[in-house]
């Protein structure tokens, strides 16, 4: 299944294209349409450039990713690419997982919730823009995990897969590295690398669900 990379209007109409529910009423994008439309309007007011990346509306500044609107089974979110560097005195941001080093989410489930938290969301978007303009970088804790040999070999054997892996966000790449590395035996790591291939080609991280 090819991801929807055409336009945000197509995303709202047809879905993200990340699973077999694309262009059906069951696509998770349709669960959050009103909230997504409200989030889109809020982000566009901040002067960012709208694009489609990884099957989701992505907003950039001078070609650099700042924030994404993403749909999940249980919520939609504003995803901040350098969210770990944002000031969050009210602790409204969530980490996608315990191993996430950069990305942070601001979750929503209804249009009313977007309206109620609009000032907070706008403040965070404007802060993210300011950080990007200043060239700020997130300081990760500790050194990045090494690429397991089994995953490196699988990527080297398939140029299309290697390109898809390189196109993933850093967090998604890291999720596959951690998953494959977590096996003790080389044979198990090789099997995990093979099972990751479909998700990598679909632009998904290991923990993302197709539903």
Word description of this protein:
The protein is an alpha+beta fold and 211 residues long. The protein has two domains: 8-133, Yope Regulator, Chain: A; 149-201, no CATH class. 41% of the residues lie in helices and 14% in strands. The chain has helices spanning 8-14, 33-44, 111-116, 118-133, 149-156, 159-167, 170-181, 186-201; strands at 49-53, 56-61, 64-71, 76-80, 104-108. A five-stranded antiparallel sheet has the order 1-2-3-4-5. A hairpin with a 2-residue loop joins strand 1 and strand 2. The radius of gyration is 17 Å and the shape is globular. The mean pLDDT is 89.
Labels describing this entry:
211 residues; alpha+beta; Yope Regulator, Chain: A; 2 domains; five-stranded antiparallel beta sheet; 5 strands
